[in-house]
Amino acid sequence: MNLSLLLRASLAVIVGSLVACSSPPKPTGSGPLPSEPSIALGDGSDAEPLPPTALQPKSRWVPVRWAELPGVQQDALHEAWNAMLKSCERPSPAFSPLCGEVRRMSLSSEAEQQLWLRSRLQPYRVEGHDGRVDGMLTSYYEPQIIASRQPTAEFNIPLYALPAGRTAKGGPWYTRQQIETLPAAQAALQGKVIAWMNDPVEAMVLHIQGSGRLQITEPDGRVRQVRVAYAGTNDQPYKSIGRWLLDQGLVRDATWPGIKAWIAQNPGRTQELMWSNPRYVFFREEALEGVDVNFGPKGAQGVALTPGRSIAVDRGSIPYGTPVWLHSTGPQVSLSRLVLAQDTGSAIVGAVRADYFMGWGHEAGELAGRIKQNLRLWVLWPKGVPVRGG
Hints:
four-stranded mixed β-sheet; 12 helices
């Protein structure tokens, strides 16, 4: 499947607005505008001496030539530049000096962008401390869900904000089952409903993904699009409902399509299935308008995720904001592309491990739910900047 067809439409329309938002303002006054100095680039020969191997807490980085990166000449780099610009909103100290050039290169040709990458960044192959180079790629997405501001006979599944007095990490609280059944838990959540949903499976998907877009009907009948973002949990352990079904011998396909098919055949056991996961997620509502519509929620780096160009990583292996060359082939997708490490997740653990942000909506969700395949990673680190673990 060609992911450019899936993702390019939403990305192409925002290049111009991103550049406008990211470029520094021009000085005012009657004098002539100063010209920006040209960016001095090398010839891309990739013949410089290689730096030493670098160690991270959970990985080691082995320096390599650019020629080792599969498909490095074929990537649509203008799509990746959107994610580069986002990372420059909250850059790490290693990448901050390059952000001015990143902004100025945003409208350059892909050949010029390719030369800039080779001139400024050194590739390192990511390995485990045991030398293993193969890891696992999974994918996540932002659900797009119909909701109501008021409860009805159909919309009767609440989506809660954090209870009063509870912080994002406030110690173990009521389990999912207790939240839905105990009067004391219900009293603590009084007045905290953000919206009401009509599908328990979609509600669980939202809890697992951690954010989503709501097409919400207001009391006056208006329909608005808002985002609900992760605000905290009940600090109970996460248990996979797919694993519960497998352990019970109830399914062989524990992907989201497989789970939905099982529920359709066993509607009376839906509550039992949902209660097998004691963790409960609370949300906060955010506006969704303007250029933000074209990006995902904010990741752990603190910047909005770019569909097809942002990944979640183990921070002990790859620091936030680092450009990464990703190569993965499998039955669902084949990927060789530049991505940015901009998020993390409790299940994203290990040296060569990534969760690929697919985008939002039904199509992205169907594809993301089926991706579990081989992975290799190369980090791209600024030349001349020491690599520090931690």
